[in-house]
Design goal:
This protein is an alpha/beta fold and 311 residues long. It has two domains: 151 residues, HUPs (Rossmann fold, 3-Layer(aba) Sandwich); 129 residues, Riboflavin kinase-like (Elongation Factor Tu (Ef-tu), domain 3). It has a six-stranded parallel sheet. Strands 9-14-11-12-13-10 form a six-stranded antiparallel sheet. Helix 5 runs antiparallel to helix 6. The radius of gyration is 22 Å and the shape is elongated. It comes from Subdoligranulum variabile. Belongs to the ribF family. One of its GO terms (biological process) is riboflavin biosynthetic process. Pathway: Cofactor biosynthesis; FAD biosynthesis; FAD from FMN: step 1/1; Cofactor biosynthesis; FMN biosynthesis; FMN from riboflavin (ATP route): step 1/1. This is Riboflavin biosynthesis protein.
Length: 311
């Protein structure tokens, strides 16, 4: 997938089928829009493309980031998108709906077919909606296709609902709406050595950056991709009250991989979350804490053995 990080013409000599949206989380609804564009491109000899944008650092317009850009790109590419434009929001936010169609869709994408949800807006101050998009594109011979909104438990799937589910520890709901396990790929950094030095449970530390959505504190059954292999693991997110009771204790994300040994500092392994196991709590001793970590790791190994057996 070719990624463009500014408004620039993409490679679409025969024209493109363009998916439109922010695609935060690349959830079920986003996948339907992206998939429709890919299917149309294949059937009509067009280039499968997507237009999205990147918000300024610190922006709260869309809430905390569900996926890193690296993960977002990987998931979109896996859908079959060939040309992907992710312009800074400020680069086009002042365009009128008419200028957006001409500058972005015609000049940058040579668009022939467009795909979006029925809540898509565009142009300065979100002045354009899907009906306006149809009006502006019809004289240009550009087809506009509204993809039905994905549903989960009787309500529309949205990034807002996914964020709420993650923050409340409802991992099963979040994963169902994402259509694939929630995952992070933050860099592995050095911790304080408590896991390896005092607990006998060396951990990989992938702490959340400020702009990222942070899930509910707790212990999770996870798996991590290291050295070309998926490894069952147990991950704790929280302030570690057993070993650090200070008022300003940092929130950490630590993963114990029971069967793995090796140095992965600086790498960005994908860590997938499958089940919320238990909340974070203070233990009376490090022995009790270590026992919980080992128990969670054993449960993770059993979980993935069972998952593989049902495939």
């Amino acid at each position: 997938m070719q990624i463009y990080q500014s408004l620039t013409p993409v490679r679409a000599p025969q024209g493109s089928a363009v998916a439109l949206g922010y695609f935060d989380g690349v959830h079920c609804g986003h996948r339907a829009v992206l998939g429709a564009a890919v299917d149309c491109a294949k059937a009509n000899g067009l280039t499968a493309a997507a237009f999205t944008f990147e918000l300024p650092a610190g922006s709260t317009l869309k809430g905390g980031r569900i996926l890193s850009l690296r993960q977002k790109h990987a998931r979109v590419a896996a859908m079959g998108i060939e040309e992907y434009q992710e312009a800074p929001f400020d680069e086009f936010r002042a365009l009128s709906p008419e200028d957006f169609v001409q500058t972005v869709l015609v000049e940058c994408f040579n668009a022939k077919e467009l795909f979006c949800g029925d809540n898509f807006t565009f142009g300065a101050r979100a002045a354009g909606n899907v009906e306006r998009l149809r009006e502006l594109c019809k004289p240009l011979g550009i087809g506009v296709h509204i993809v039905p909104m994905a549903q989960y438990q009787g309500q529309t799937v949205s990034s807002t609902r996914i964020r709420a589910a993650l923050e409340e520890g409802r991992l099963a709901d979040a994963n169902a709406m994402l259509g694939t396990p929630y995952a992070i790929d933050w860099p592995v950094v050095h911790g304080k050595g408590i896991g390896s030095g005092k607990l006998g449970t060396p951990t990989l530390n992938q702490n959340y950056p400020a702009a990222a959505l942070q899930p509910c504190a707790g212990v999770y059954l996870t798996r991590i991709f290291l050295n070309g292999t998926w490894w069952p693991a147990a991950t704790g997110i929280g302030k570690r009250p057993t070993v650090d009771q200070s008022a300003d204790a940092a929130v950490t994300c630590e993963t114990f991989v029971p069967d793995f040994t090796g140095n992965v500092y600086g790498q960005q392994p994908v860590l997938e979350f499958y089940k919320y196991f238990c909340p974070v709590r203070k233990f009376n001793s490090l022995i009790e804490l270590a026992a919980l970590i080992h128990h969670a790791a054993d449960e993770s190994k059993a979980y993935f053995v069972g998952a593989n057996a049902t495939k």
